[in-house]
Amino acid sequence: MSSKNGSILALDNVTVSFGGLLAVSDFDFTLQRGELVGLIGPNGAGKTTVFNIITGQYEPVSGKVFFRGQDITGWRPDRVTCAGIARTFQNMRLFEGLTVLDNVLVARHSKLRSSMLAAALNLPSYVKEERQAETKAMELLDRVGLVDLAHTQAGSLPYGQQRRVEIARALAADPEVLLLDEPAAGMNPEETMRLMEFICGVRDEFGLTILLIEHDMKLVMGICERIRVIDYGMSIAEGTPEEIQGNPKVISAYLGEEACDYA
Amino acid sequence: MSDKFRNTLLTIAFIAFLFFVAWLADSYLDEYVMRVVRTGLIYVTAAVSYNLINGIAGQFSLGPNGFMALGGYMVALLILPLEQKEFVWFLQPLIWPFRIFSLTKPLFPLALAIGGAAGALGALIVGVPSLRLRGDYLAIATFGFSQIIIVLANNLIPVTNGALGIKGIPEYANVYWCLTWAILTVLVISNLANSSYGRAMKSIRDDEVAAEAMGIPIFKHKLLAFVVSGFFAGVSGGLMASLITTVSPSLYSFSMTFNLLIIIVLGGLGSITGSTITAFAFTILSEALRFVESPINIGPVHIPGIAGMRMLVFSLLLVLLMVFYRQGLFGQKEISWDWVLSHFKNRDYQGVKTCPQKTDRS
Amino acid sequence: MNAAVFFQQLINGMSLGSLYALLAIGYTMVYGILRFINFAHSDIFMVGAYSAFFFIVIFRIPWPLAAALAVCFTALVGMTIDRVAYRPVRDAPRISALITAVGVSSFIENLGLVTVGARPKAFESPKFMSRVFHIGPVSITGVAIWVPIITFMLLVVMMYIVYRTKIGMAMRSVSTDIEATRLMGVDVDKVISYTFALGSALAAAGGILWACKYPRITPLMGVYPGWKAFTAAVVGGIGSIPGAMIGGFIIGLIEVMTVAFFPDLSGYRDGVIFLVLVVFLLIRPTGILGETLKEKV
Ligand SMILES: Nc1ncnc2c1ncn2[C@@H]1O[C@H](COP(=O)(O)OP(=O)(O)OP(=O)(O)O)[C@@H](O)[C@H]1O
Ligand SMILES: [Mg+2]
């Protein structure tokens, strides 16, 4: 199978099931370098599952995942991340016992070249690398406006700041593709606004390709160039924000959900 | 002078001070007290190494007694004098390489290092298959493996002399060796815990899925923690063999692991300072409670000893700790030079990192 | 080895296995609901045997009544342990619950050592247990026959409770999804309490039958049967009740046959079971009937 003409990330006919439930079925998707694409759909549609397939948390029963033309299906998550795909989690998985700075530094660990022995003996080569990692992590914390909180317990921060730590942590892995799972969840409109600017900003600054899951339609419609809609594990539409907004299939998928909510 | 350099100097001075104290103690204190001190130091080595797995990497192992047994038997076989070997294995001969040589006193550190290597190898063999398992299963697998080691110790007469064990091991484990290894263990493991590798291990403890998603190969790091811990456990087992001068399967039974578990929980899972202090406290408490298990004669009144009383107290302590005082004495905090100095200078340092206990999310 | 000896060993294996099954069910039920290993379960087994012993020897209560009282008493002990030790750590990190369980187990064992002493006590089993039956060349003691029969009856009662009563339904529902069950208005703590009672009652019955089979009881008598029963639960698929029964029989047979076929290895009989445990954990951690659950990310 080709890498789908030069795309940075491609999913080819991917299917995942959980004990009979098809969470994602026959899913095709490509992402071009530098794009900012939204992935939307009602609750339980399979959006997070798509992320989990890309990052190797779940292995698809069929289909393949390509990254820069290379087949990465079935790779372990750490290998996928080192290859250049980083993510955030819908339910925020910070290392709550560690400081904010340490959270970000964890993502730099895979870049470390010193051996464990060098680290345990505090050899100069290791100390130098560690200092570099720290500088880099502080830069990222500065970028998300959390430098002052670098030595605070991550678990003790308010929700919005934890979300920002998580993004800084993902960026620290030096990704080419960034997967954001509902980054605006639990934020107020003003925080969401700033998040939108931030996302666009880091994309340009770091030359990232971003895939974004979000329920906040204003955010998605506002910054995404292209949107993919998924429902019951199947793609139902793809297009520009305008096309998606007027698509009857999409409207009925969302209305169906609303109808259930009120029932 | 940078803070780092200053701290290094302070550490060196403190170590020199500890050796001086050890020398004073060795010169003036009686044999019994020194035995308790040496036991305490060996427990420091064992507990700090156990804390690396359970507290820092967050993997619940129930196997340190097995690794200590490996180190203990290895050291015993290496340093037991040849004539004693013939005496112990008079029915069945001892297996080959050990039957023809014996390491002399100056080579005791080498014997300990080999004992440590035996522990590390054991940890590698146990870890490779079982560290892929999560949580409870790991506890069971490590328990199972350490039981297999004890069963082997009971049955492999040509190596272990079975249930009778090995007697007459030379008592090379003086206070200086015990102290040296305790310091080495604390230094290496705290350096490791504060390094990038230690951070990776702690991230696995806090959230395995997220750690993996941040590019940490979790299996490799768990295994590293396991092997390093196995090495120092092996050394402590060897020191203990030489201190007690006998080894037998019952010396390294599950109650050894149980004692270590109490120590690291009481000190605070993840706190090396805590493990060090409570290892000592536990040894003293354990000695103090020895009287409840031995018969006492007060004039004409004879009070028989009650076997199991000490363990009863300790188990109750463990349960009470878990229910009411889960973070232990130190939580995940450490005492650092910055913190100590802040007390002298009355300045407001943030040397002690406060780490509230996280709650489970599974 | 001839057919008669083999047959005899088969019966012995089934008899031992049925005891492991009784004990394994307790491990599996608690694991199914709380996802943690109740290390103290093996000591509950010992408490069952000792309480029967005291009811019979000290209070001179007739055998069947004493056994019934012992089972009830042990069920209460199980519920108490859950209430005072496990419930407070239920929301704590997983490792805390495990450490607590290790502590409780050691506490019960040492409480036993302190109160009744380490010296074995002679358990009085009822007359019908000690008769010897001769079937052709095979001679079988009453215990070897009665144990599986009584076990079988207990298992039927237990299956009835779990699959046919309201509380059993609640137990199964809690083990499938504890949060959803709580939302439906079920008092989850109460259901867990009953689970401990049921598991402990079965363990007590197992302990009493064990004492009939091996009539020297000590405070540490539960340790090895406990671990073997736990192995049985893993082999059968932890969380699955039918799995625990199948696992129990498999472990019983493996143990008896190892000693019968390889007398030289009798010193390793415990080691062999641990090896089975480790091997199963490695090649099929979900056991024979267990399901694979993928952690939701
Ligand atoms: N590990 C798992 N085991 C069982 N079922 C799962 C698992 N992960 C996801 N599912 C199921 O797959 C379906 C899709 O889930 P997914 O989390 O991908 O939805 P989503 O689109 O991200 O929804 P939301 O908007 O609520 O986050 C759901 O029905 C979910 O219950
Ligand atoms: Mg989702």
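^ adenosine-5'-triphosphate complex. Chain C has one domain: 3-283. The CA atoms of residues 16 and 194 of chain C lie 27 Å apart.
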